[in-house]
Design goal:
This protein has four helices and six strands, in the order H-E-E-E-E-H-E-E-H-H. The radius of gyration is 22 Å and the shape is elongated. The N and C termini lie far apart (52 Å).
Length: 185
Amino acid sequence: MIDDILIDVKHRMDQALVHCQGELNKVRTGRANPEMFNSLTVDYYGSMTPLNQVSTISVPEPRLITLTPYEKTLIPIIEKAIMDANMGFTPGNNGNSVMIPIPPLSEERRQELNKFVHHLVEEGRIAVRNVRRDGIHHLQDFGKEDHVSEDIIKDNEGEIQKLTDDHITKLNTLQNEKEKEILEF
């Protein structure tokens, strides 16, 4: 049972880390990143479909993203979806694909993005700490119900703390990498 608690804690902390990584990937930096468009959907024959399911997303140059739809009739729909998403891009097309130049970020925008990245990572840290609190609570309840020795409970609380520290370190690394990416010219 204690192993189940530890496995659950690790799984939930991993999920918090993956979620934070996914949110950070959506943050626009000064260079072309196709993952910025993962959350964008377009109207495809009456149903909202993720952009990456109706087109090929590629990065031919560091400051250019091209979206090549599987059907040419989607080009104006994709352009409209990008404009409506208010991502700060002005898409154009060459008849076959939608081309999105990535403008450099202003210093003010970089600072705003850094604050936003800090906020996202802090939410990840909070999620990890909440999982730690829940795991320790479950351990203590289990110890009381099944009369497990306090030493075993304390040892496993130490394991949960070690997992927490590892995940917080990974989140800090993600934050530092993203901030470096945003600040580079």
